[in-house]
Design a protein that fits this description.
- The protein is an alpha/beta fold.
- It folds into two domains: 205 residues, FAD/NAD(P)-binding domain, CATH 3.50.50.60; 173 residues, D-Amino Acid Oxidase, Chain A, domain 2 (2-Layer Sandwich).
- Helices cover 29% and strands 22% of the residues.
- It is built from 13 helices and 17 strands.
- The strands form two sheets. Strands 3, 4, 5, 6, 11, 12, 13, 14 and 15 form a nine-stranded mixed sheet that branches. Strands 1, 2, 7, 8, 9, 10, 16 and 17 form an eight-stranded mixed sheet that branches.
- A hairpin with a 2-residue loop joins strand 9 and strand 10.
- The two termini are 32 Å apart.
Length: 468
Amino acid sequence: MGGGEAIPGFPHPNPVTSYWQLPPHRIADHRTTAELPTSTTWDYAIIGSGITGAAVAYKLLTRDPTLQILMLEARTAASAASGRNGGHVRAGWHLNFAKYADAFGEDAALAFERFEGANVANMAAFVRAHGVDCDFRDVQTADVFTTAAAWAEALAVVRRREEVERRRPGAGGPFVARRVWEGKAAKDRVGLPSAVGVITYPAHTQNPYRLVCRMLELGLEKGLNLQTNTMALKVAPLEGDDDKNTAKWEVVTDRGTVKSQKVVLATNAYTNALHTKLNQTNFLVSGRSQVSAIRPGSNMAHHPVMEGTSVVLDDIGNGDYFLVRDANLPGAGDILYGGGRSVSKSLHTVDDSVLNEEVVAYLQHTGRKVFGSETWGEEGDPVRDWGGITCYTPDTFPLVGEDTTSTLQQQRGLWMSVGMNGHGMGLAFRCAEALVEMMTTGEAPEWLPEPFRLERVWNKEPVHLSGL
């Protein structure tokens, strides 16, 4: 479990172990070299070994195998949000289309839709191309609504998007025809007596920890130097000329100081601790999200969801979601239930060594309420409770790009892809591709939505989107 001393703002050294991290992966404590390589000038120093860091390293080395890349991880490999989420891989923000169109314009909303859809498709293609053993499953995911008002609002978004498709066919990429279920059909589709309406569409479930660890292994095979249990404490520009062979940055760690041409912050909720100027904007806000794995109620054996499913309960005010481990996987039948936002008091924290016990109680016992006491039966046993630190921006979009706030050329080369708003599996893989494109060509790809650009933090007042 958790505990131990922590430096404020930095990863806690002893986080609670997540469901996915048992057993630990073979590279959990990997160090490519026994000593921290402080005498080398690296092409890239990547801080963070989650899906963003792993994808950036893999994509860079795939493009240029001669690159020298160092990755610094404060704890064990993939030990932050990437190894702690609920296991869904879904283009689940389709219902934000109207809010995005109203705030940023229809083109930006369509660009986001293309981006999110491509991210999910590219992750699935990566898993299949490399035969990644991460319990990857194709599922029909469901957005569930339990009040007439919320369902009417959701339907209005669906109809608005359908109207755009008629007017601008294909503008959002391959159009996903989501299926709408209402009334009794909705209740029967998901087996939830409170369901007023349901929207279903293709998605995936997986063990995210094993996916990211395998991605790291593929990077290691291409020459990545991974140093786990090595906390980056400070990132600073070095004095010197602009010669391409001269290091421009130093990263101070608890094991020594390394030098690099470029630094990539793949640090999500921990970014503020390393980037003082960004921290002063209050643009990134961290919070602890929690998940509980429970055994189903005694009457649930033949319930439709027990065949393996992915559900988000969109309107009950708690950000609730769950998936069921299917019959061919370890932990078959475990229900992984996350959310409990209304009872959480865990914003402005990076401490994943402890859990909010009110949230634990909510997640462990809400099955009876969601499914109905008769359908649920006697409560099953809890399996494991865990949390992870997520990171939010006021407009719900990540920050992707280079820090260009310095006018000094020798202080350029600090890059980041952070602020995934709890939706990293829907955004981070494609964000990494965009960042690699920017770092290697000097140009942002045309498919990167304009609202993702890092410079918006300093260029204007942020857009605040409520209710997302």
